[in-house]
Amino acid sequence: MLKFLIKFSVYKKDILQNRYPMKRLLILLSLLLSFGVQSQQLIPLNEKSYLDSLQSVIKSNGANTAKANASFLLSNYYRNIDSLLSKKYLENGKTFIKGDDFLSAKYNFYEAQYNLDRNKGKAAISYQKAIKQFSKFKNEESDLFQAAAWYSYGVTQKDKEGYPFLVKTILEKSIPLAKKYENSRNLGFLYTQLAVILTYNAEFKKSEDYNTKALQILEKHDPNSPELFFTYLNLANNFCYQAKGDEAKKFLDKAETLIEPHPDSSVNAFYYYGKTLYYITRQKNPEALPVIEKGIYYAKKFNQNLLAQMFYFNKYDILRKLKRYNDAKNVLEDVLTEKSLALDLNNRKTIYKQLSSLHEEMGNTKQALIWEQKYSKLNDSLNTENVKLEINKIESKFNAAEKERKIATLNSEKKQKELEVNKKNSYLWGLSLFLLLVLSLLIFLYIIFRKNKKISEQKINDIKQKEELSLTKAILDGEERERERIARDLHDGLGGMLAGVKINFSTWSASHLDPEKDAEFYRILGQLDNSVSELRHVARNLMPESLLNFGLETALNDLCEFYSRKDMDIDFQAISIEKNLPINIQLNIYRIVQELLANAIKHAEASSILLQCSQSEKDFFITIEDNGKGFESNREQKTKSMGLHNLKNRVDYLKGNMEISSDSQGTTINIELNIDGD
């Protein structure tokens, strides 16, 4: 499990940093899309018969249990099609509970289903209630509902905890419950969902293995199920992303056989999306366009807005390849206006980049520059790593055991001390009464003496401290103002001019130069492009825009990403950092961390750095550890390093303390800051 989660995070980082953002967006969103719709429980392919049968049950004079179940299933069907009707059926089912604990558990489950795409927080609470209630019943239906609830709960936590948490939930919670019943559709569904995540992370062989496990169950026991339909589509998509068109076609045809008798089913849109990917894989772009139009028809019919926008995005990509630039531009601008895809900042950044390059190909230099500037501004401030590494299972268990051991030790020590104190108290009372009279006079005199001395010393120290802080503040404020001015001049002035020059050169060379004959010119043009990127790196280092736009935590995360490289792993942990800190305090903390990282990378020769930043009300704590070569314990006193001098000034400015511990195994620095702002 640990090995899988580590590999999972590495593959995801590789995909997010793909050099071809258009391809990344199409693959990533199509996978997330197919993944998101299958959020337990799937609707039968013959939707009309299914809905008619449920309506008949509600209108009949049957048992309350059957009517409640039918109402809940109808609520689940309409939850993404007609929210008002879905809510109506959910509340209708609630009226049939009448003290039935199992039906009450089902109500919480389907209430969570209703809120899954509206309010993930509410959905998560309802799923946990349902799990707790179902756990009281020991039967197959209860176990399968628990498996479904655990999986969907993982989906609610995906944005906050990341995909590793969802994978752990599937492997450790859902699958063990469903595996009690080897031939259940639920187990096949869970295998398929795990396969989708593996495909997303380029683990194509492992994805194929889990999809095959699903096929072995579903083809034999549920040959006409929607779970089998989506398994076929997932296998087809998996092979498409590997450019294996023949294998993809086999499973796409099987999916078509299942869906063909049901032209009114809402899942037709997903079939046409899979068919679109197949034509793109085969580079049959003209044939893909009518398939996309069919997919758009079904997506709009069933209010599948995100899927409709994905069709439009593929349509744009094909039109551009066919050199129908005006049509492609109109489609992409419509996608940006509709906002379903553009809500995600990474998607919006990709769309800006596509519009810039498209206008450049069309010869619209001015428009290309406008979109390039939007892309550049968003790219500079965007946190390119949206998912943090999950703490692995082994480490969690170790930490939990370690905490329990410490608690037990502390409790034991506490009891022992209480016994010793009680024993000593009986002896001390008599002696204390005698000494009290003698000491009272001495203490009184001593207090007066110390009080007068402290008052004098405090006045002197206060004056010195105010002078030092005033001087330090003036120096630091001056430095930051100058950094901000230089960064703004570099980014907005010189950076914009160089970007414009690059675009003008690109436009001119396209019509005047031959790439083969004038290779030297294009090499120089590449150097100009690299220079623009380096200039933006310098500007961001001088005055990080992510700090001003998104706060301290995001800026520190960006800083760690900036210093990371193949032979240097930086693990950043942020704990309870408030977003409303004064900007000057945020900036000083940022500079302190920047200096710590720079020193560790420059001098320590380390391969791993742990950086932890935490806040407790008006106290801010910074800890940095590395596995480098270390240095002499008194080096910080002997050295005349400007970096350590600036670091000490900033720590003193925030009324903080700094401790340094170093040996041949590495270096640890602990800093405690007062961020009261007084």
From TrEMBL:
Query: Which species is this UniProt entry from?
Result: Chryseobacterium pennae
Q: Domain named Histidine kinase: which ranges?
A: 485-677
Transmembrane ranges, per UniProt, are: 427-449
Q: Which residues form a coiled coil?
A: 384-420
Protein name as catalogued: histidine kinase
- PROSITE patterns found in the cross-reference section: HIS_KIN
List the catalytic activities from the record. Answer: ATP + protein L-histidine = ADP + protein N-phospho-L-histidine
Q: Give one Pfam hit by family name.
A: HisKA_3
Q: Which domain of life is it from?
A: Bacteria
- E.C. number(s) listed in UniProt: 2.7.13.3
